[in-house]
RNA sequence: GCGCCCUUAGCUCAGUUGGAUAGAGCAACAGCCUUCUAAGCUGUGGGUCAUUGGUUCGAAUCCAAUAGGGCGCGCCA
C-alpha cells in the first residue's frame, strides 16, 4: 500500500484542529478534507477545516483559519500555511515533499495507488449478463467495460471483488434458441423443411435466423447423426431433442460470448446460470422468504396508463409488495402459464449472491432496464432486511458514428453488429478507453475514426503517447548512463532536489493525486474518473516535454549534468509507472513506442 | 398520464459528493515551430451552469416547480 500525501497531511490538520477546537464530534471531523488546490496561487493543498469547525465553536471561520495556519506552518514539510478566502487554509509544501512522491511510486511500482479504503468488503459486480442466444452485440459493450473497470478499480481500492456474469438460460428466449438450433440441425442432416413450415411448428415462431447457428446445427449432426429427428429428417417431438439441443446451444453460445469478451479483455470470475439457481431451489427459497415476511399476495394490478398492451386483461396474480420499499407498483412473480417471471428468478439470483457472501451488490445494466431498478432494490432490501445494499449503474446508449454520420446496424448492409466486428475495426484498447470518456449515465457517441486518430484530442492516443515518450526517454537514458544506473532500485537512491521547475512540480502533484483519485472513484463507483485522470497526467507530461523544446535546460537528458539527468529520469520512470498503474485499472495495454 | 436519468462556452464533455475568480479539448482569432520522438507549441476571446424560487457562512452541485431531450411503464430479458 502506498502512502498518500493528502492522507498524511490531513492527520496533521486534524491534530491541529483538535487543539484549537476541542470536543469536535467524529462525524464533523470526517467532513474535514484536504484537497489539491485548483490554482497554483493557492499552494499545493487546501483544507476546509476552519469552515467545518466554525459552527460548533461559535467562532468566525477566518479566525480559526488563522490559528490553524499558524499551527500548520510548523509541520514538517510545510513552507507556508495561509488563511484565505472564506476560511480555507492553503498549504504550500517543500519541493522535497513532492519530490519524495516520485520515490514512493518507484518503490511501489504499479501497486502505487492501492488503497485499503474498501476494507475487504465483499463486493459482487455483475455485468454483461446478456442472453446466450447469439453473439455479443456492441450494445453490451459499454456495460462490459464499465463493469470490468469498476471491478478493477474497487479491487485496487481494497474491496474483495467478484466479477460475475448471469446467464439468462431459463426463459422463453433460450427455448427459442433451442428451436432455431434444431432447425439448423435438421438442415445439416439434409432435411428439406423450409423456414415457413418450421416457423409454423415453433412455439412463438422461429426467432433466431442468423447464420451463426449453422455450425452448431452441423456439430449436432456430427455427434448425433439423424437420431434427433424422425424418419426422413422430419422434426421429432420436443421430448426427443429439446433439452439436449438447448443445453448444447447455450453452451456453445456461452463459449462464443466468453471468447468475444476475452478479446475485449473482460474475464469474469463467476458465471451463474439462471436455470441452475432455479433447479437448486434458491429461487423458491427466496420467494418463500418473501412470503414468510408477508410481502406476497394475490391481487389485480391497475392497467398501465398511457399505451395499453393489446391483449391486456385484468387478472389476479401473485404480487410482491415492492411498494413497501419505494417502488411505484407491486410486481408480479408468475406468468399466466404458472412459470416465474424474469423478476422472480432474478430475486432468487440476488439471494444466491448474498448467500455466497456478497456484502455489496452492484448490477451494471443498460439504460433500457431503468424501470427495473426500483423493484430489484426493493426485493434485495426485503430479502436482506436492508443489510446488503444493491447499487445499480445504468449505462446509457452508445451511438456508433463514422465521420459524424450514424452507422446503421444492419446485417444485410454489411455494417457490423457484433462486439467482435467493433474490436476488429478499432482494437481493444481504443474501445475500452473510449467507453470511459463519459460518465456512464450520459449518452455517448463513439466515432470510429476519432478513436483511432493520432491527434491531441484523442485521449487514448494522447495517454499512450505520453507513456511511449517516457519509455523513449528511458531507453535513451539507458544508452547514456548504463542499464544499472536506471533500474527502479537505483533510482530510489537518486537525489531529487533538482526537480524544481514549475512544470516538474506540477507533474509531481498530479502523480501524487493518484491514490485519492482511486479512492474517490471507487467510493463513488465512477470508473470514468480514471480515464480523465490519465488524460490530465498525460497532459502534464506533454507540457513538460514541450517546454524542453524551447528551454534546453529543461530537457530530461543533460550531457554534462549527471545528477540532474538522474533526477529527471527518476521523474520520468515514476510518471511511466503511474500511467501503467492507471492503464492497468482500465485494462489497457501500455505501449513502448508509437508506430 | 406516471416514474427514473439528463440539460455547463459555437461543438464534445469534466467539475474530486456543498467550497475560493466554473475548467479541458475541438472550432475561431493571433503569433511561433523543421524538432531529445514525428503525428505541433504558446497566447487570446468566448458563460444568466435550461428557467424561477427555496435551504445556508457558501449552490453548477441539495429541495420544489417549469421548459426541453432520453428511457421505462402486467406474463421481454
From TrEMBL:
Domain DALR anticodon binding residue range list: 463-594
PROSITE patterns given in the database record: AA_TRNA_LIGASE_I
InterPro entries for this protein: aa-tRNA-synth_I_CS, Arg-tRNA-ligase, Arg-tRNA-synth_N, Arg-tRNA-synth_N_sf, ArgRS_core, DALR_anticod-bd, Rossmann-like_a/b/a_fold, tRNAsynth_Ia_anticodon-bd
Identification of the protein by name: Arginine--tRNA ligase
Subunit: Monomer.
Entry EC number(s): 6.1.1.19
Location, primary (coarse class): cytoplasm
GO CC, any one term: cytoplasm
GO terms classed as biological process: arginyl-tRNA aminoacylation
Residue ranges annotated for the Arginyl tRNA synthetase N-terminal domain, each copy included: 7-93
Coiled coil: none
Gene Ontology molecular function: arginine-tRNA ligase activity; ATP binding
Organism: Acetobacter estunensis
Keywords: Aminoacyl-tRNA synthetase, ATP-binding, Cytoplasm, Ligase, Nucleotide-binding, Protein biosynthesis
Enzyme class: ligase
Compartments reported by the entry: Cytoplasm
Family the entry assigns: Belongs to the class-I aminoacyl-tRNA synthetase family.
UniProt keyword ATP-binding present: yes
Top-level taxon of origin: Bacteria
Catalysed reactions, semicolon-separated: tRNA(Arg) + L-arginine + ATP = L-arginyl-tRNA(Arg) + AMP + diphosphate
SUPFAM superfamilies to which the protein is assigned, alphabetical: Anticodon-binding domain of a subclass of class I aminoacyl-tRNA synthetases, Arginyl-tRNA synthetase (ArgRS), N-terminal 'additional' domain, Nucleotidylyl transferase
Amino acid at each position: 500500500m502506498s502512502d498518500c500525501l493528502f492522507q498524511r497531511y490531513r492527520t496533521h490538520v486534524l491534530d491541529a484542529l483538535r487543539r484549537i477546537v476541542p470536543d469536535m464530534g467524529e462525524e464533523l471531523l470526517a467532513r474535514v478534507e484536504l484537497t489539491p488546490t485548483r490554482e497554483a496561487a493557492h499552494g499545493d493543498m487546501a483544507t476546509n477545516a476552519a469552515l467545518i469547525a466554525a459552527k460548533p465553536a461559535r467562532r468566525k471561520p477566518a479566525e480559526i483559519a488563522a490559528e490553524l495556519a499558524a499551527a500548520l506552518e510548523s509541520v514538517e514539510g510545510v513552507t507556508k500555511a495561509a488563511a484565505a478566502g472564506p476560511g480555507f487554509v492553503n498549504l504550500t509544501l517543500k519541493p522535497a515533499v513532492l519530490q519524495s512522491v516520485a520515490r514512493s511510486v518507484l518503490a511501489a511500482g504499479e501497486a502505487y495507488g492501492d488503497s485499503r479504503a474498501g476494507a475487504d468488503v465483499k463486493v459482487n459486480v455483475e455485468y454483461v449478463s446478456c442472453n446466450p442466444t447469439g453473439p455479443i452485440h456492441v450494445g453490451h459493450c459499454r456495460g462490459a467495460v464499465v463493469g470490468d473497470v469498476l471491478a478493477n478499480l474497487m479491487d485496487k481500492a481494497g474491496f474483495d471483488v467478484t466479477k460475475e456474469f448471469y446467464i439468462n438460460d431459463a426463459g422463453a428466449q433460450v427455448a427459442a434458441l433451442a428451436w432455431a438450433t434444431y432447425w439448423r440441425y435438421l438442415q445439416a442432416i439434409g432435411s428439406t423443411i423450409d423456414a415457413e413450415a418450421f416457423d409454423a411448428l415453433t412455439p412463438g415462431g422461429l426467432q433466431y435466423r442468423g447464420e451463426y447457428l449453422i455450425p452448431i446445427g452441423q456439430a449436432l449432426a456430427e455427434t448425433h447423426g439423424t437420431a434427433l429427428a424422425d424418419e426422413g429428417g422430419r422434426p421429432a417431438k420436443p421430448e426427443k431433442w429439446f433439452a439436449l439441443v438447448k443445453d448444447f446451444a447455450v453452451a456453445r453460445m456461452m463459449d462464443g460470448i466468453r471468447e468475444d469478451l476475452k478479446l475485449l479483455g473482460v474475464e469474469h470470475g463467476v458465471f451463474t446460470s439462471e436455470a441452475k439457481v432455479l433447479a437448486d431451489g434458491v429461487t423458491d427459497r427466496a420467494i418463500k422468504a418473501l412470503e414468510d415476511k408477508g410481502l406476497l399476495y394475490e391481487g389485480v394490478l391497475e392497467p398501465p396508463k398511457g399505451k395499453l398492451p393489446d391483449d391486456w386483461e385484468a387478472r389476479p396474480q401473485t404480487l410482491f409488495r415492492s411498494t413497501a420499499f419505494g417502488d411505484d407498483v407491486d410486481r408480479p412473480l408468475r406468468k399466466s402459464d404458472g412459470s416465474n417471471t424474469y423478476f422472480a428468478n432474478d430475486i432468487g439470483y440476488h439471494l444466491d449472491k448474498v448467500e455466497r457472501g456478497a456484502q455489496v451488490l452492484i448490477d451494471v445494466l443498460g439504460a433500457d432496464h431503468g424501470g427495473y431498478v426500483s423493484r430489484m432494490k426493493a426485493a434485495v432490501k426485503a430479502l436482506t432486511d436492508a443489510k446488503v445494499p444493491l447499487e445499480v449503474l445504468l449505462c446509457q446508449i452508445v451511438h456508433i458514428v463514422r465521420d459524424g454520420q450514424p452507422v446503421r446496424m444492419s446485417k444485410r448492409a454489411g455494417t457490423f453488429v457484433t462486439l467482435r466486428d467493433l474490436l476488429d475495426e478499432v482494437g481493444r484498447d481504443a474501445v475500452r478507453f473510449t467507453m470511459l470518456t463519459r460518465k456512464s449515465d450520459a449518452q455517448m457517441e463513439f466515432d470510429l475514426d476519432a478513436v483511432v486518430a493520432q491527434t491531441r484530442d484523442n485521449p487514448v492516443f494522447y495517454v499512450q503517447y505520453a507513456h511511449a515518450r517516457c519509455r523513449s526517454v528511458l531507453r535513451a537514458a539507458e544508452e547514456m548512463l548504463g542499464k544499472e544506473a536506471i533500474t527502479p532500485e537505483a533510482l530510489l537512491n537518486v537525489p531529487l532536489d533538482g526537480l524544481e521547475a514549475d512544470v516538474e512540480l506540477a507533474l509531481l502533484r498530479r502523480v501524487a493525486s493518484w491514490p485519492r483519485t482511486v479512492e474517490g472513484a471507487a467510493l463513488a463507483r465512477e470508473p470514468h474518473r480514471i480515464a480523465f485522470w490519465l488524460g490530465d497526467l498525460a497532459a502534464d507530461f506533454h507540457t513538460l516535454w514541450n517546454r524542453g523544446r524551447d528551454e534546453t535546460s529543461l530537457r530530461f537528458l543533460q550531457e554534462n549534468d549527471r545528477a540532474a539527468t538522474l533526477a529527471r529520469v527518476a521523474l520520468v520512470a515514476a510518471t511511466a509507472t503511474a500511467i501503467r498503474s492507471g492503464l492497468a485499472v482500465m485494462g489497457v495495454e501500455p505501449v513502448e513506442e508509437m508506430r
